[in-house]
């Protein structure tokens, strides 16, 4: 039992991201309101961002800005002293992508609203079936 | 020849898109010529790359001058060069055909439309040529976001369909991204070949299995593989016709290519076929996709919507052909990426012409069309024969290879599905021909009737010429199948395939 | 739909949890992700690019090609929102409104009526109900220049501290959005018109791509900033640092322009009147 608990605690970051991701996924599938679905989509994407960022963490390391001074010659840099910059770079991209998707999704939702005067999906489908 | 070709392939349309966007505000008349120049540029570069590959010159490009595991690199080989040419060619020809519709339906939005059009093609080209798993995600999103916007431009239900596509597409892309993250966490690399090298000792790991499954589900969502196809028919039906004839032939095929690339280059065939042993299950899924796609197509009363279900069935062909796991199946799948892109492109262009003239593409409004739109219907016949698989059109040859693959691996379910869907194709298209040829002009079209029922009322020449170029290319590609297989695809087949 | 949702969520969640068993523990410095590719970035960034901030050097140099497309994604979103929402301006004959600047009283002029009062003391507004608060307007007016200076600092100082083109661009864009939230859209449009923001975003990405093309023209690979040593002082390593700066400026412009552009289109449903 303790082993399993230890296993869970050592990797709690992954549990958090999975929970968050599933909340988003559920929102996207089960909600009826289109804007709620869009919010779910955003939570879903944010969960992946958290996952990536947590890959980059190293215990006891600091932010990846190398300490330097102009008078001292370059000293050898120990990679273990700084957290991994690559996931941060990737997530900067993913954040931008998720903002862009959100923008386009909202624009499309506005178009849907202009056409159907509602954002409830079942009402829209009813309108389409019975013109 | 030129070492910078792999970069230019993407940079030319990318740069052009900024100028098109600016021209939309400053000099709207320049938008179309700029877009044509961009598409022509990338078509020429892709042909140059094809020549390079035929001559055996490797197309490697290090962006920023950084060597592969650290920087991003592009790689052109026998597998992707044909796909590049097809994307660039379809993008170019479709742009020509798009002009009359764009100028009639949304003239004031021509600038942003062409910008997104060019960016969509850029995204697809980049996805095919890249050798970096994360770079692929970014380009995938470029193609996706431009695709969402272009589809939402349509009338009626288009906006809602596009929103559904956004949800499904985002889930698909995020699953892919998650898969890349899982691979990164166990290997520490993003470069496809580097990951593949590091994965060799990790084949037993849970993480790799889950990464594989998640990535495949994501890619299947994006390509509309049968149980995950729900977004596809509506999105492609309600999009404006120049958009559906661009997105429908290209997006699904590029995703099939991505699937093949990920399995061949990243996970390796050993892993997919020998460690996980998923091949039989996936081929059966493909069988279901083919059967379901064909049957759903049969039930439709709108030609464009029918075509979208044919796209769903065709995806089953390619996925199944690849997962058969033998040389003939692989050849058939890769050849079918090329052929199917051309075939569906031809059909969607023809339907686009019909919609341009008639306003819709319902079966009943096709009556008498062989008399009023002979050229369009002629090209439609060529495309339909190719989908059914009648020689000498190209559809016959790729289907032949797929059948051969099914027989060789003894997968008779797939064989039956292929033959059955061809039969369904015969029924489908001959119903269209029958309505178009034998039924008189419907009384519902008052003005046309008034001018005399048999008067030719064709689409503008600017739409007919691209259509016929495509229709002729179907036959031409069919005649040169031997060359294509022998000189390009044969070299792309991995050695371990039987 | 709810049951289906729960089933899918449970299934996907189970698969994902299954994988975590083989993950390296949280914060493990010995995990493969921290050992294979990334140490080189940390160890060589100062030597190779003269940029101490490894995130900036990876973002804008080692993986700059990704970042170029990332900026393009933003640009795509801007164009997409414009394409979907913008309604071509056709002025219907509608009553016009004017607000007295000092008292906040709003006058409504009927169709075809003449406005005879001194125009200087009035400003045109788009609807009778336009929120107006002297305190908020004044505070925001004084705050915005500082926000913008901070945005420029974040762009310029990305080499040495957390920051860079995206962050700075967002701050700059937010300052304009704050203007339109605290005042109204019309004021914000006066400061940064639709055309300006719509041209800023392709121009920014063009600066990025143009830098890459310049390297290509100078005989190096695309985005290999070493090539800029021929034009800028300081040798090939400083040229990388300068190249990163150029690119970050492009990113900042693109992000700022697009943020404002998307906001204007979304907030007013593409009509560019008082939507909020």
- Tally of extended strands of chain A? 0
Instruction: Name the beta content range of chain A.
Output: under 5%
**Uncertain ranges of chain A:** none
Give the N-terminus to C-terminus distance of chain B in angstroms: 34 Å
Following the backbone from N to C, one meets helices and strands of chain A in this order, namely HHHHH
Share of helix among residues of chain A? 55-70%
Form type of chain B: globular
**Numbering strands along the chain, what is their spatial order in the largest sheet of chain B?**
1-2
The quaternary state of the protein chains shown equals heterotrimer
Q: Using the coordinates shown, work out and report the CATH topology of chain A.
A: Helix Hairpins
Rounded mean pLDDT score of chain A: 86
Helix content of chain B: over 70%
Q: How many distinct helices of chain B?
A: 20
Radius of gyration of chain A: 22 Å
Order of helices and strands of chain B: HHEEHHHHHHHHHHHHHHHHHH
Largest sheet of chain A: none
Tell me what the structure shows.
The complex is a heterotrimer of chains A (131), B (498) and C (276). Chain A contains five helices and no strands. Chain A is mainly alpha-helical and 131 residues long. Chain A has one domain (2-59, 79-129): Helix Hairpins (Orthogonal Bundle). The mean pLDDT of chain A is 86. Chain B has helices at residues 5-26, 31-55, 81-105, 110-129, 133-152, 158-187, 192-199, 206-223, 232-238, 241-275, 279-298, 303-324, 327-358, 369-372, 374-388, 394-408, 412-438, 446-450, 461-479, 481-492; strands at 59-62, 73-76. Chain B has a domain at 278-498. The longest helix of chain B is centred in the middle third of the chain and has 35 residues, at 241-275. With 276 residues, chain C is mostly helical. Chain C has a domain at 44-86 and 131-267. In chain C, strands 2-1-3 form a three-stranded antiparallel β-sheet, with no helix packed on it. In chain C, strand 1 (96-100) and strand 2 form a beta hairpin. The two termini of chain C are 34 Å apart.
């Amino acid at each position: 039992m303790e082993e399993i608990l230890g296993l869970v605690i050592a990797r709690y970051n992954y549990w958090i991201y999975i929970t968050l991701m599933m909340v988003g996924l559920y929102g996207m599938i089960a909600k009826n309101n289109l804007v709620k679905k869009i919010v779910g989509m955003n939570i879903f994407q944010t969960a992946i961002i958290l996952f990536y960022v947590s890959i980059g963490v190293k215990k006891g390391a600091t932010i990846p800005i190398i300490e330097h001074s102009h008078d001292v010659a370059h000293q050898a840099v120990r990679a273990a002293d700084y957290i991994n910059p690559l996931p941060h770079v990737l997530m900067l991209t993913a954040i931008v992508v998720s903002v862009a998707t959100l923008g386009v999704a909202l624009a499309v939702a506005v178009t849907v609203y202009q056409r159907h005067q509602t954002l409830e999906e079942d009402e829209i489908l009813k309108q389409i079936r019975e013109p | 020849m030129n070492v910078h070709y792999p970069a230019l392939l993407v940079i030319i349309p990318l740069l052009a898109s900024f100028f098109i966007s600016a021209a939309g505000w400053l000099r709207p008349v320049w938008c179309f010529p700029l877009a044509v120049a961009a598409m022509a540029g990338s078509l020429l570069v892709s042909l140059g790359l094809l020549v390079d590959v035929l001559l055996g010159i490797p197309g490697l490009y290090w962006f920023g001058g950084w060597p592969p595991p650290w920087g991003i690199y592009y790689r052109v080989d026998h597998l992707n060069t044909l796909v590049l040419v097809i994307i660039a060619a379809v993008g170019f020809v479709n742009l020509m055909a798009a002009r009359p519709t764009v100028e009639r339906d949304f003239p004031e939005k021509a600038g942003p439309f062409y910008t997104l059009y060019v960016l969509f093609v850029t995204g697809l080209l980049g996805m095919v040529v890249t050798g970096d798993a994360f770079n692929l995600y970014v380009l995938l999103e470029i193609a996706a976001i431009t695709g969402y916007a272009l589809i939402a431009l349509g009338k009626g239900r288009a906006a809602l369909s596009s929103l559904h596509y956004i949800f499904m597409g985002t889930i698909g892309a995020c699953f892919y991204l998650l898969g890349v993250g899982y691979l990164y966490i166990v290997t520490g690399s993003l470069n496809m070949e580097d990951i593949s090298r590091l994965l060799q000792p990790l084949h037993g790991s849970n993480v790799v299995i889950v990464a594989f499954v998640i990535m495949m589900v994501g890619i299947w969502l994006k390509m509309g593989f049968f149980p995950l196809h729900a977004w596809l028919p509506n999105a492609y039906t309600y999009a404006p016709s120049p958009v559906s004839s661009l997105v429908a032939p290209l997006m699904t095929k590029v995703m099939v290519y991505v699937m093949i690339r990920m399995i061949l280059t990243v996970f390796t065939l050993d892993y997919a076929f020998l460690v996980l042993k998923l091949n039989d299950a996936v081929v059966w899924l493909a069988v279901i996709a083919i059967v379901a796609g064909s049957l759903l197509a049969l039930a439709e009363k709108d030609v464009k919507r029918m075509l979208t279900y044919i796209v769903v069935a065709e995806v089953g062909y390619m996925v199944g052909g690849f997962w058969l796991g033998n040389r003939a199946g692989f050849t058939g799948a890769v050849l079918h990426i090329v052929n199917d892109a051309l075939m569906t492109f031809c059909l969607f262009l023809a339907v686009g012409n019909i919609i341009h003239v008639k306003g819709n593409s319902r079966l009943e409004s096709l009556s008498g069309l062989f008399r009023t739109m002979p050229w369009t219907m002629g090209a439609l016949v060529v495309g339909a024969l190719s989908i059914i698989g009648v020689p000498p059109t190209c559809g016959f040859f790729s289907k032949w290879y797929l059948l051969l693959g099914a027989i060789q691996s003894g997968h008779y379910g797939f064989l039956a599905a292929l033959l059955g869907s061809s039969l369904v194709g015969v029924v489908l298209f001959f119903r269209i021909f029958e309505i178009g040829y034998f039924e008189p002009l419907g009384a519902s079209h008052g003005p046309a009737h008034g001018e005399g029922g048999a008067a030719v009322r064709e689409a503008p020449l600017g739409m007919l010429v691209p259509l016929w170029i495509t229709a002729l290319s179907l036959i031409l590609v069919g005649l040169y199948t031997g060359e294509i297989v022998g000189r390009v695809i044969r070299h792309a087949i991995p050695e371990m395939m039987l | 739909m709810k049951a289906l949702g729960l089933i899918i969520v449970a299934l996907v969640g189970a698969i994902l949890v299954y994988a975590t068993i083989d993950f390296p523990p949280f914060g493990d410095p010995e995990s493969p992700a921290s050992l294979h590719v990334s140490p080189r970035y940390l160890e060589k960034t100062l030597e190779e690019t003269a940029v101490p901030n490894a995130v900036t050097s990876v973002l804008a140099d080692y993986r700059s090609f990704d970042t170029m497309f990332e900026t393009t994604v933003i640009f795509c979103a801007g164009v997409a929102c414009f394409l979907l929402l913008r309604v071509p301006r056709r002025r219907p004959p509608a009553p016009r409104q004017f607000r007295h600047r000092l008292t906040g009283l709003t006058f409504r002029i009927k169709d075809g009526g003449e406005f005879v009062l001194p125009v200087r003391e009035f400003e045109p507004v788009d609807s009778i109900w336009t929120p107006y608060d002297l305190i908020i307007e004044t505070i925001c007016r004084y705050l915005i220049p500082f926000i913008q200076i901070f945005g420029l600092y974040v762009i310029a100082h990305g080499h040495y501290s957390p920051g860079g083109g995206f962050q700075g661009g967002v701050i700059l864009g937010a300052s304009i959005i704050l203007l339109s939230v605290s005042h109204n859209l019309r004021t914000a449009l006066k400061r940064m018109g639709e055309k300006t923001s719509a041209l800023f975003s392709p121009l920014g990405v063009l600066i990025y791509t143009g830098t890459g093309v310049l390297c290509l023209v100078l005989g190096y690979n695309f985005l290999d900033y070493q090539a800029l040593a021929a034009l800028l002082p300081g040798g090939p390593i400083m040229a990388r640092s300068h190249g990163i700066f150029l690119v970050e400026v492009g990113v900042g412009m693109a992000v700022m322009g697009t943020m404002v552009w998307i906001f204007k289109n979304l907030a007013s449903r593409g009509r560019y009147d008082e939507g909020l």
